[in-house]
Automatic annotation (TrEMBL):
It comes from the Bacteria. This is DUF1573 domain-containing protein. Transmembrane segments: none annotated. Keywords: Signal. Pfam families: DUF1573. Residues 1-20 form the signal peptide. The keyword Mitochondrion does not apply. The lineage of its organism: Bacteria, Pseudomonadati, Bacteroidota, Bacteroidia, Bacteroidales.
Length: 142
């Protein structure tokens, strides 16, 4: 009986180690930058967008299942086809400040993939200023 228990424990440990090692292989998403700062922009032109570049640094095709923004004012667009090992991909993130109070902001975008770990997070930030206020005017006010 004792031998069976030991055998079962050894098998469980072996499967656990094999599974853990398997997570190191497969697709990997590596971003060039995980934060984009828009700086200041006027509420007169409240639409801004940027592109996040990533590379599949793994050894299997990378699939992005979804990209979820922390706010409805932020819309991510991602490739629907698999990104092959060594290939680059791009995620476009658009921010719509229309009908929002001029202020600094920071938004997160959760990227759900078939990589390990399954979720990566990228961020956008910036400051939408009131109509007619520019960076030069705010610097002079100080």
């Amino acid at each position: 009986m004792r031998q069976r228990v030991c055998f079962i424990l050894i098998m469980i440990m072996a499967f656990t180690m094999a599974f853990a090692q398997d997570k190191q292989h497969g697709p990997q998403i590596t971003f060039k930058n995980v934060v984009h700062d828009f700086g200041q922009f006027s509420e007169d032109d409240p639409y801004v967008s940027c592109v996040f570049e990533f590379t599949n640094t793994g050894d299997a095709p990378l699939v992005i299942h979804r990209a979820l923004a922390s706010c409805g004012c932020t819309v991510p667009t991602f490739p629907k086809e698999p990104v092959m090992p060594g290939q680059k991909g791009y995620i476009t993130v658009s921010y719509n400040g229309k009908n929002r109070t001029p202020a600094p902001f920071q938004k997160s975008i959760r990227i759900m993939t078939n990589a390990y770990p399954e979720m990566a997070i990228i961020y956008i930030k910036g400051e939408m200023t009131e109509s007619g206020i520019t960076k030069e005017k705010t610097m002079l006010d100080r």
